[in-house]
Batch of 3 targets.
Target 1
Amino acid sequence: MEDIRFTPGLLPPEAEALRAEVRTFIADHLKGYPGVKRAKSWSGADPEFSKAMGARGWIGMTWPQEYGGGGRSFLERYVVLEEMLAAGAPVSAHWVADRQSGPLLLKFGTEEQRRKYIPAITRGESYFCIGMSEPNSGSDLASIRTRAEKTADGWRINGQKIWTSKAHTAHHMIALVRTQPQDPKDRHAGLSQFLIDMKETKGVTIRPIRNMAGEQMFNEVFFEDAEVPADALVGTEGGGWGQVTTELAFERSGPERYLSSYQLLFELVREIGADAGPAEAAGIGRLAAHLSTLRQMSISIATMLESGETPNLAAAIVKELGVAYEQDMPGKAHDIAGISPRMGGGDFDQVMAYMTMAARSFSLRGGTREIMRGIIARGLGLR
Ligand SMILES: Cc1cc2nc3c(=O)[nH]c(=O)nc-3n(C[C@H](O)[C@H](O)[C@H](O)COP(=O)(O)OP(=O)(O)OC[C@H]3O[C@@H](n4cnc5c(N)ncnc54)[C@H](O)[C@@H]3O)c2cc1C
């Protein structure tokens, strides 16, 4: 049984000092940026905004300076993320690279890979996507069938990925593929990770899947005899499962797991205004109190990361509670304001309509609710 504990954490003065700087940056760059765009939260993209963040040193903030990283603390990074998410800033272009592909390459990549890929990520110029899910292999990731075979010069990849967010704009994918046939005795063996150039590799086809909100966010990605060089392998051949588990832990520990619906709370408060009746005030108060608790738990994760711990169980708990919170937000906003979601109208209506459609997906991305609860139960020694 894992130790479950949320060490109370405080943001140090240097992190709080950064907050003012980030707010000024956001006010300058997002003047007049509409509520419905802010509602996209970390799904909204703007390459120029990513470059501007890179120029300020706010991508790869905790990475070593020798690769272009900021060498700053997890708590400073927390403040930048928190402010960006609270403002609904369009951070999605570089999001995956900053959150997980960069840390993965720093941990498992070769020195050559680090030098080649990390600096462009920190400049906000290089975007990554995650090639894990396949048709019939989502929660049961170990059952993937996309395979890579060794060739004289590298590897030949065949198969299909699905639900690949932003594959159409990403420069690279880090894909989990099978390099050995599945072994029924060890389902996690024989998997490897590859860094695939999405723009240059022949035999890669990207097909859009439109989501319920009408956006092209997801894609199917097909590999037909796609040849990649030998140095596209990330980490150890056959060690993909351990690596991907580490990568998923990077994906589950941040404040984005409870702030995705923040714009709706903001618009709700604006809509109700200063004349809230007792029921409205109580409803908003409850939402604010939950938000504040989740924030404390999330800061605690950042504090533990800063002191070199790997609080995977605590991060899974924050993700599960945070996702429930952000997913319930449209229903709560409806109950409090007494307005049904509808297209058109003012900022509140538009944000509520968008959130009502988007929130369904929050409990799927990064591992479904049932899978997260399974991880928590295992951590608690219950299964
Ligand atoms: C917004 C969004 C972005 C995404 N982006 C990416 C991406 O960039 N790259 C990528 O690779 N994937 C991505 N995904 C895919 C996502 O990881 C999968 O949808 C998710 O892992 C679930 O897999 P699935 O859709 O195949 O559902 P399934 O695994 O088929 O699950 C169907 C249902 O069965 C339940 N279930 C499955 N197994 C169990 C079990 N053992 N015990 C209890 N219940 C179970 C699940 O909880 C779920 O409710 C994204 C998904 C979303 C919604």
Target 2
Amino acid sequence: MSQFEKIAEGKALVFVPKEKKVSKKLPVFYNPAMKLNRDVSVLLLNSLDKKDMQIALPLAGTGIRGARLFLELKKGKIKSLNINDYSENAARIIRQNLKLNKIKTKKITITRKDANMFLLESSGFDYIDIDPFGTPNYFLDSAVKRLARDGILAVTATDTSALAGTFPSACERKYWAAPLRNELKHEIGLRILIRKVQLIAAQFEKALTPIYCYSDQHYMRAFFYCEKGKHRADEIIEQHGYYENAGPMWLGRLWDRKLASAIAKQSDERILRIIAEEAGVNTVGFHDIHLMCKKNKISRIPKTKDIMKEIREKGYGVSETHFSPSGLRSDIPQKDLLKLLSKAF
Ligand SMILES: C[S@@+](CC[C@H](N)C(=O)[O-])C[C@H]1O[C@@H](n2cnc3c(N)ncnc32)[C@H](O)[C@@H]1O
């Protein structure tokens, strides 16, 4: 085990390959930058009123997410935990990691199949976590086919260069939409990703409503709640459309407000607190205060808390946004915000 080191994340200990740089070429990944990604899975499943879940991790890597779900989800949540990865190394490391955490249970199965085969050969799951390196596209069909009614689908995309508009043709090809290359690029990219997943599900008469999502560092992440039926699937598609020249994309809500608050309450991560606030303001896009000041030659940029107070006093909703440190999410019209920014605070 000399090429491995032992680390702690959440309540789990894991053996991880001693590689300094995370890359697709590694046989098995442990990416410390994805700790938040795994934290949110735990927090979200603990916040939902769901018990006896059949959980699937088709692309499990080192198995750290599996170990954490087993150790950190509340009692009664897990009926079965199905950990899969096609790499031979992964299956071995997953076993070692479960042993390291003294996890011995009939509830867990470890398989070494192609993720699509693993999903399609199953009878279905209440939670499926698609956490690939790059685009989730390859796995979406089988994931939505095997997602149960009232089930939760989690999707990670790390190909942000396509979604956030560095390579517009890649976004068209992979996500069937035009991205936006400005300060809103991450929110628009996330909305484009959401629509793509929803379209795949709609083919099978499944309606996927986003309940929680975010963009962080090099990836985007979305959680969906699944309902079955043509009518609901059509209602989802009706909420697709354009923002400026970008899209089509999901124009509906990004968060379930109660869920976002419940998640934030269980953690002291700043990003989760900001998301809980922005879940209360339903807009597509946000105002970039620094940029507005620059464009309009306003030399003294007012303090965020002062502008927020003024916006509230005018009767509009407002919050910070996790998409940008200089952004404010608000339903105030741009011209009214500009008037506020122009006056001396
Ligand atoms: C980003 S890593 C997963 C990280 C893991 N979910 C975590 O939270 O630490 C992606 C994993 O998917 C596996 N993988 C890639 N393509 C696959 C496929 N078609 N079927 C099964 N596993 C696959 C790789 O071996 C790799 O371990």
Target 3
Amino acid sequence: MKPFSFFLVTDPHYFELSLGGEGEAYEARSRTDQKCVAETGAIIDSGFADIAADSETDTVLIPGDLVYRGEQASHEGFIKKLEKLEQAGKKIYIITARHDYAGNPCGFVGNECIPVEGTPRENLRSLYYHYGFEQAISEHKKSMSYTVQLTDSIRLLALNCDGDCKDFKGLWDDQIEWALEQIKDAHESGNYIFAMTHYPLLPFSPVMNMIGDAKLTDWEKLANTFADAGLDLIFTGHMHAQAVTDYTTQKGNMITDVQTGCFVGCPCAYRRVTFRDDGVDIKSYTIEDFDWDKGGRTAEEYFRWRFDRMITDIIDAMAYDFAFFTRLFGGPEKNKKLRIPVTLVGKILQKLTVRGLGRLLFFKVDDSIADRLVKDLAVELVRNIFIGDEPYTKGTPVYEAVEKMLKRLRPVIRIIEKKAGAKNPLLADIPAFVLSMIGDEKKRDCNTTLNIDWQRFKKA
Ligand SMILES: [Fe+2]
Ligand SMILES: [Fe+2]
């Protein structure tokens, strides 16, 4: 059978630069952001040009966070980019998410954020009508979800998960009912159906279990319901991270969540997904270059620099700007007592190497990593979670060093485990928890083939 493929692009967060994207206010905002903002137009143009050039793939899916913070002008600019992609022969299907209507839409001029026109959520369906809603074979209008027929035997279930637009980031009961009908109807009519939603269905790393915003509210209920109904594949975004995660229900049904990194934030990833006779092939790409003054950096170096400074700024503030540091965690008054210890730790971290840490805690480190600054390594470990395929597995010098450090800190860790472990079972074994985040034995976050028999519903 002829393979079918599509591109998956998520979280393009387009920002219309004519609203104003430079100066003090812009810098202050963008420094705390992992993703690019002013650069999004140039990055999207570059990525969309690469996608347009692939003549074998005519479908593009975009599961939400289309613009930066709901600016009407950003939506209009982004739709122009979609029109260009469409003129290159692509069929585009989107869903919207919270960044498409919520937030604080403004332009950045000098040291001011100037409010600009936002976009009410109820306007989004008509704005993007042409990109999914128009082709829908069924729609759940209240939630702005729909189903489309992608090929003669494959359907897409596009599930909006705005929930109550507040704390509940999930699917309403009647929306779940509708989705289950879609799955049943697809199967009975000889179609394979997969889903896309903005929020991840599954927490992709142990730490994501602890972050409320890292997955759909009621994710376990949904994963069980959908997998037991025969849905086995879902494409998601939102966390700006690359991950492929499986979940198996008590009845033995598996669902795989393919979460794709942000199109405009390190590693600026997108995927090409191909349905072949032997399974579903997932391949990742990144934006190789884009038209911007990158200060002599390659695109990859630029994206990493943008990501890293979000964290290094915090470490630097510990040492040199306590007021900024405390503002991030609740205000200076509240944290006055912490000024001396935080500043001390911050200053030590400015110079502490892995060798120095080893000496401090009496463990030997491999020469290959001895001269690295601990803060640089820490930033890299966080960055690796987002890039996926975390490299520091058992046997690597970094794994050994982290393992030894955790052993030395055992007495302190035991106290934390007792307290925190009672509330959260994941923290009952902190060394295992930490080590599981720095090394991924499976290495399937970026490229993999899923063993899915998507032709099993086809009628003879
Ligand atoms: Fe996002
Ligand atoms: Fe999001």
